Structures are given as C-alpha cells and as structure tokens.
C-alpha cells in the first residue's frame, strides 16, 4: 500500500504535470470507485482546472477551481499512470481523467477510491487522523506526549493512522530497524532515549523515502526515473543480511501484519 513517501512523490510529480490544467474529459470504468452517480461526477468534474494538489497522510487532495475536491486513497494495490492512450498500461482502468491528449489513469482501485467532496467533507474525513509526522509542529516533545499515553506494541502504534498519520507496514519496519528497536516491544518498555531515537528515525526514513521516490513498482509516466527508487533495509528482505550487523533478517507476524526485522541488532 502506498504510504507517505509514495503519496508525497505523486503529489510533487503530478503538481508539475497537471497543476493548473483543465480536465477535458472523464471516464469511469468502475462505479464503486467514486461516491456519486457517474453522470453527476462527470458533469461536475469535466472542464474544471486542477487548482492545487496536496497530501494528508496517505491521501491526495485535488482541489478543483470551483472549490470542490477529489479525494484519492489508493489503498492496497492502487496506483496511477499519466500519459497518452498508446502508453497506457495493459490493466483495467477504474477512472480516467483526460487533459487533452494526456490522461491520468487510476489503476487497481479495488479498495481505493476517488471521491468528489466539499472542503468541509474532506475535513470530516481527516477528523480522526493523527498528526503529520513531517510537519514542523510535530516536535520531539509532541511525540513524547503522544507515546506517553499509548500502550501495546510499537509496530502496531506506528501504523495506527489515528496516532500518527502516513506510516504504513513497510516504513514502520524500516523506522524500527533504523532506531534499533524490536517491532514487538511494548511502548511502556521503551525509555526516553529509545523514544527520542525512534522520533529521529521517523524523520530520517520518511525523508529518505521521499528523496528516493518511494517504493512504488510502477512509474508514474513514461521515462519516470524518480518513482520507486527506495531501497529497503529490512522490509521484504527475509533471509538477507542485515546491512548493519550481517545477521539474517527474519519475518514474523504482528497483529496480522507481515513484519521484518533483525533479531540481532534490534533490541
């Protein structure tokens, strides 16, 4: 599932590709991917310019010129491709937004969606989300205060969107490896030094993910050299050597989530 760095990469690249551009046509291949009837969606979105593209947690918000918003959540398996019709991937397209001869294809939206909402409805969707972990206001002190109130395992807490927004299964393992903390540790077992290390690892790993274009397998457009360059330290590397201590990375399950870590240098 795309996480904060993937959605931030999409936001930046799409801002330069379609920012300010007018949506010339709309095609819906799967009605369940949108939240209003097809005719109404098409009528309200067509001929609207994309005013801004922003991100909140794992969501993208396309603000239209009339103030309405398209709220995107890719969920598991969702991705996008931008290009001409002849360059489109050989995959089922759930939604297509056209910009003249170029199109933004939404693919793999089995669970994901593109909803047409008012700004107030978008805010309502975000009401339960935790803080943006890369926001300047998300300080070390703020992190300590949040963790002080939590119980349970640290891995489960990191991926809880109501606690911290934007971290998912992949980057939580990366963060905990970088902080040298086992993913099955209880929060109340962590001392202040470990929590401080964890905070700095969140900042480091997510910024590294953004700089390297995240881990999406599919390029956003033909010739895209940015998307998907992130190299994992531990996630999905079972049996491979830990780059820090050379022990073998193991896979376990925490709260039904596949979890990867180094049993030697994560304590």
TrEMBL record:
Its EC number is 3.2.2.23, 4.2.99.18. It catalyses: Hydrolysis of DNA containing ring-opened 7-methylguanine residues, releasing 2,6-diamino-4-hydroxy-5-(N-methyl)formamidopyrimidine; 2'-deoxyribonucleotide-(2'-deoxyribose 5'-phosphate)-2'-deoxyribonucleotide-DNA = a 3'-end 2'-deoxyribonucleotide-(2,3-dehydro-2,3-deoxyribose 5'-phosphate)-DNA + a 5'-end 5'-phospho-2'-deoxyribonucleoside-DNA + H(+). It holds the Pfam family zf-FPG_IleRS. Its cofactor is Zn(2+). It comes from the Bacteria. Residues 2-106 form the Formamidopyrimidine-DNA glycosylase catalytic domain. One of its GO terms (molecular function) is double-stranded DNA binding. One of its GO terms (biological process) is base-excision repair. Belongs to the FPG family. Monomer. This is Formamidopyrimidine-DNA glycosylase.
